[in-house]
Amino acid sequence: MAKVAFLGLGVMGYPMAGHLIKKGGHDVTVYNRTRAKAEQWAKEYGGKHAGTPREAVKDCDFVMMCVGNDDDIRSVVFGENGALAGMKKGSVLVDHTTASAVIAKELYEKTRERGIGFIDAPVSGGQAGAVNGQLGIMCGGEEAVFARAKPVIDVYAKMAALIGAPGAGQLTKMVNQICIAGLVQGLAEGLSFAKKSGLDVEKVISVISKGAAQSWQMENRWKQMNEVKFDGFGFAVDWMRKDLGICLEESKKNGARLPVTALVDQFYAHIQARGGRRWDTSSLMHLLMKE
Question: Which of 22, 173, 203, 290 is catalytic?
Answer without folding.
Answer: 173
